[in-house]
Write a structure and sequence with these properties.
The chain has 84 residues and is mainly alpha-helical. It folds into 2 domains: 30 residues; 54 residues, no CATH class. It contains 4 helices and no strands. The N and C termini lie far apart (38 Å).
Length: 84
């Protein structure tokens, strides 16, 4: 979904490109000052830096759509638990 990291597939194999790209993605960490770091609904929103980048132009700036989705899911779960 994102343009970075990238790999010139014509310059190597798919397997090599996949391994290098996944390695770069795995090295990325959520920044200390990220709005998502302390969010209680993070596991429900579909947190995705790639989606953030497509929506906002930055993988560090959360998606308002995904945030709203997480909050709605959390509210629905609370209602179901409380029998409502």
């Amino acid at each position: 979904m994102v343009r970075q990291p990238s790999y010139p597939i014509l310059g190597g194999s798919f397997q090599q490109g996949w391994a290098e790209t996944i390695s770069l993605i795995n090295e990325k960490k959520l920044s200390v000052d990220s709005e998502c770091r302390g969010c209680k609904d993070k596991l429900l929103c579909g947190y995705c830096p790639g989606f953030f980048e497509m929506e906002n132009g930055s993988e560090a700036r959360p998606s308002s759509y995904l945030c709203a989705l997480g909050k709605l899911r959390a509210e629905t779960i609370k209602q179901e638990i409380s029998g409502g």
